[in-house]
Amino acid sequence: MRLFHALRDASRFRSVFDFGGREVAHWFPGHMAKGLKQMRANLKNVDCVIEIHDKNIPLSGRNPVFEDTLNVKPHLLILNKMDLADVSNKQRVVRTLQKSGVQNVLFTDCLKQSDTSIKKVVPLVMEIIEKSMRFNRAENTTYCLMVIGVPNVGKSSLINALRRTNLKKGRASRVGGEPGITKAVLTRIQVSERPLMYLLDTPGVLPPRIESVETGMKLALCGTILDHLVGEDIIADYLLYSLNRLGNFSYVEKYSLQEPSDDIQHVLKRIAVKLGKTQRVTAITGVGNINVTVPNYTAAAYDFIRAFRKGELGQVISVLWLPQSLSL
C-alpha cells in the first residue's frame, strides 16, 4: 500500500536534476597522460584492443580519445559489472552501440569465480583477429592484447578472471575499489596457454574534458571519478534523484524511512541515525562553547553511494544510461 501511494504521488519528485551551475570535474593526472602515450607506443605490437566499460553507463563516459587514437586495431568492447546491472536492457544497449559502429560487444561479471562470459573472451578475440590483417605477423602464433578503459571499470579484474579461467592461476594485477590503482602500462601478463596470449594492463584514462556535467555525475556515481572531487553529498543527491525517477524506493526499507523522500538532507539524516554515523562538534553559544553530537552527513552519503555500487539498492541502469531527455 505504501508503495502504491508513493507511485501515485510520483509527480512530487524532481523530473530534472539541478546541477546548480556546477563545473564538470576534471581529473586527468600525470599518470593518465603518460599512460596514454605508452599505449600509443605499444600499439604496433598489439593484435586486438579490449575496451572494458561499466555496464551501468554503456553510453556515457567512454573515452573518445580511445576511438581517435587506438581504434586502428580489431576492437572488442566488454561491458562489465553485470551483477549490478539490469539485464532487461541488454539487447537495446547492443543495438544502440552497433548503430554507433561498435560491432563486437560482450557482457561480463569479472568478480564471479566462474563466469561463462569470461570463457568466451579468448575464442571471440581469436575470431576477431582472424577476420583482420595481422600486419605481416601471420607466422607469429603468440598474441598480444591491450586492455583499456576509464578508471575503476574492471580492467585488472578482467585480467585476473582470464588467468583464473584459462590458466587456473591467481591474480597478476592489483585490484582496488577506487579509481587510479593501475599507474602504468605493465609488462605482458599471460592469460591463455592455447593459444598463447598475453594482455597489457593499462591505467584508467578519462578524457581531458568530460562532455557534460550529467556524464560526469554518472561517472562519479559509478566510482570512475574520485568521490571527493565531485562531493559525496552531490553524488548521493543525484543517486536519490535517479532512484525516485525510476520509481525504485528500495532505500526506504533499507534505511527504515517512513516513506520515499526527495530531500537528500532528510534521507542522509535518517541513514546516519540508523547506522549510528554521528560526530561531535563544538557549538558556540552566548554563554560558552558546548560539545554536541550531530549526524555525520558525509559518512551517511558514502554509505548510500556504496550501497548502490554493491547492488543493494536494486537495478538503476535504465535511469543511468539514458540521458535526462529519456532518449538515446
From TrEMBL:
Span of domain G: 146-217
Similarity remark: Belongs to the TRAFAC class YlqF/YawG GTPase family. MTG1 subfamily.
Protein name (record): Mitochondrial GTPase 1
Membrane topology annotation: Peripheral membrane protein
GO CC list: mitochondrial inner membrane
Localisation per UniProt entry: Mitochondrion inner membrane
Designated gene of the protein: mtg1
Record flagged with keyword GTP-binding: yes
CDD domains for the chain: YlqF
InterPro entries linked: GTP-bd, GTP-bd_ortho_bundle_sf, GTPase_MTG1, P-loop_NTPase
PANTHER family (UniProt xref): MITOCHONDRIAL RIBOSOME-ASSOCIATED GTPASE 1 (PTHR45782:SF4)
GO molecular function: GTP binding; GTPase activity
